[in-house]
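thought: fold this chain, then report.
action: predict
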Amino acid sequence: MNSDKFLVDTTIWVKFFRGEDERLKERLSSLVLQNQACISEIIIMEILRGARSEKEYKMLYDDFMALPLLSINKNVWELAWEMVYKLKKKGITIPLADVIISSTALYYNCTLIHSDKHFDLVSKYLKLRTIKV
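observation:
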């Protein structure tokens, strides 16, 4: 793999932790080991919301804190505001969390790894690089 950064969406982390796809597990593990798998606050929140115990919460929290964090700063918010406006003008409405995740990937020039149809819509109209798994 090269030195590119990848923002890993919640949908991929869920598949990873469920162990549904061995190839995905190997690929994501490789990205983590090479310090290429990134996370953002909203993805952490979506995952931690599903923790079934305090022990699982703590384990997930610690794992995510070890990854490069792409902060949702003022620039990301401004990009998200513009993005949601432009998409709405084209008749496209997607969940706000997905707008924020997309704008984070765009701002930090990352490829978004996902399995969510909404990101395909964004990449069709904006310059979001995606890999759908």
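thought: worth noting. The mean pLDDT is 94.
final: tokens above.
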